[in-house]
Write a structure and sequence with these properties.
about 160 residues, elongated, mainly alpha, about 70% helix, 6 helices
Length: about 160
């Protein structure tokens, strides 16, 4: 049982870290969008303002920036879907209770008196691998959009060039 508890704790830690990875990437994207070129103000803005926003708000700002910049809608949706998957599982890990079902089975359960199967989550290696895949997809998408506005300029910068 101790081995299973250690594995469960390691998986929980990995999932929380992956959520932080995606959130940090969103913070970088947002900070560098508003304060460009990157300088001390960018980091100040990120540390004092952006990092204080909740995950949902960061995701909303990211989406709005991408829409404003007229990035590919299918790519935006794909990236947001990966971000949301990581976010949803991270939230469950952070807020649900753990319960031992048997000697070698531990799961998470929503904190409410009456739950259904949909209110439980089995934390295992397969789930961690799926989250890691979605984390990589989310970060790749965020970086792709970041590199696009960095190379080509924001919509406002491109308008100045066209004039």
């Amino acid at each position: 049982m101790i081995k299973e508890i250690e594995k469960f704790k390691r998986n929980i830690g990995d999932i929380l870290r992956m959520g932080i990875d995606v959130e940090t990437e969103l913070e970088f994207f947002i900070s560098n969008y508003f304060i460009k070129p990157q300088n001390a103000k960018t980091f100040f803005f990120g540390d004092v303002i952006v990092s204080e926003l909740n995950f949902e708000r960061k995701k909303y700002i990211f989406r709005k920036i991408c829409e404003r910049e007229k990035f590919d809608e299918k790519e935006i949706k794909k990236t947001i879907k990966s971000i949301e998957y990581v976010q949803q599982i991270r939230n469950k890990v952070a807020h649900w209770d753990s319960e031992r079902l048997s000697e070698d089975t531990i799961q998470l359960r929503k904190r409410k008196p009456h739950t259904t199967v949909k209110d439980t989550l089995k934390i295992d290696e397969d789930l961690v691998k799926k989250i890691d895949k979605e984390r990589k997809n989310a970060i790749e998408g965020i970086r792709k959009f970041y590199l696009k506005y960095r190379r080509e300029g924001t919509i406002d910068e491109r308008r100045k060039i066209d004039r």
